[in-house]
Amino acid sequence: MRLCLHLVLWLTLVTPLFSAETIDRIVATVNGRPVMESELTEQSSFEQFLAGKPVDVVPIAEQRAALERLIDQILLEQQMDSAGFEHPGPDEINKKVQELRQQLAPGAAAWQQTLARYGLAETDLAEHLATQVRTLHFIDARFRPAIRIDPGAVETYYREQFAPKLKQAGAAPVPMKQVEPRIREILIQQQVDDLLESWLKSLRTQAEIRLPVPSSAAGALPPAAQAHAAEVR
Q1: pLDDT tens profile 59-109
Q2: What's the predicted TM-score (pTM) here?
Q3: Domain membership flag for residue 5
Q4: Residue 149's domain spans which residues?
Q5: What is the CATH number of the domain that holds 94?
Q6: 201 vs 190: CA distance, rounded Å
Q7: Distance CA 38, CA 70 (A)
Q8: N or C: which end of the chain has fewer CB within 10 A?
Q9: Does residue 173 lie in a domain region?
């Protein structure tokens, strides 16, 4: 009888611990690298934080898009690691954190409250920013050197897009020479985006992307991704 009472008491004490435990699920694997549901949730929170969106339940369509972006990010991280691409230094990341803080919540208390609303610690934010900065450096180093902008393209952009937008906004005309470096950078970024999109499609074709455990996020993948996952299972 005493043994039974001890057993009941033990179960009473430990049951809340087990019931309070959050089970983290795998929503995808990318070349053998598991993507956890908590990781996807944190990535979504980080994106909402940067965009200044209110904290709310993420709709299925946005979960799908966030998972797609996370898979792309992991594919790029694997490429960076394979190439031994350097990580940004702590000074650069701290500067990024401070810039965000000044934009969103300069006061110490307000800053911590803002982070808490999105379920982020400052260390989490720094890690996400470090990944973001490293990725941007990597993309720039990979694609920018090969890009050449024809002078005619700058003139066309100025005539067909830049000048009309100025006029529509009621701003005074600006000579093309004055804004040529800015237009050239816009055109470079457009080409970088196009090259990156094409490369990511190639990486996805070569990658092994699996959805081993159904979840709301994994089930929200577009049909093409679900078909690809089914092929590699």
Answers
A1: 788 888 899 999 999 999 999 999 999 999 999 999 999 999 999 888 999
A2: 0.78
A3: no
A4: 24-232
A5: 1.10.4030.10
A6: 17
A7: 12
A8: N
A9: yes
Number of compact structural domains in the chain = 1
Where residue 25 falls (left for φ over 0; alpha for ψ -120 to 50; beta otherwise) is beta
Question: What's the alpha-carbon Rg for the chain, to the nearest Å?
Answer: 24
Alpha helices in the chain (DSSP H): 2-20, 37-51, 60-83, 90-104, 108-117, 122-143, 151-157, 163-168, 176-206, 223-232
Cβ 172 vs Cβ 187: under 8 Å: no
d(CA 5, CA 11): 10
- Position of tokens 């993309």? 139
Place of tokens 């804004």: 179
Among the listed residues 37, 34, 55, the one whose alpha carbon sits nearest the alpha carbon of residue 45:
55
What strands, in cross-sheet order, belong to the sheet with 33-36? 33-36, 26-30, 209-210
Nearest-angstrom CA–CA distance, 30 and 182: 38
Which amino acid is present at 74?
I
What is the distance, to the nearest Å, from the Cα of residue 210 to the centroid of all Cα atoms in its chain? 20
pLDDT tens, 28-62?
999 999 999 999 999 989 998 998 888 777 778 88
3-state SS, 204-225, equals HHHCCEECCCCCCCHHHCCHHH
Q: Which of 69, 188, 179, 189 is nearest to 132 (CA)?
A: 69
Closest CA to 63 of 216, 229, 225, 230: 216
- Classify residue 168: in a domain, yes or no: yes
Please tell me the distance from the alpha carbon of residue 112 to that of residue 97, in angstroms, as a whole number: 13
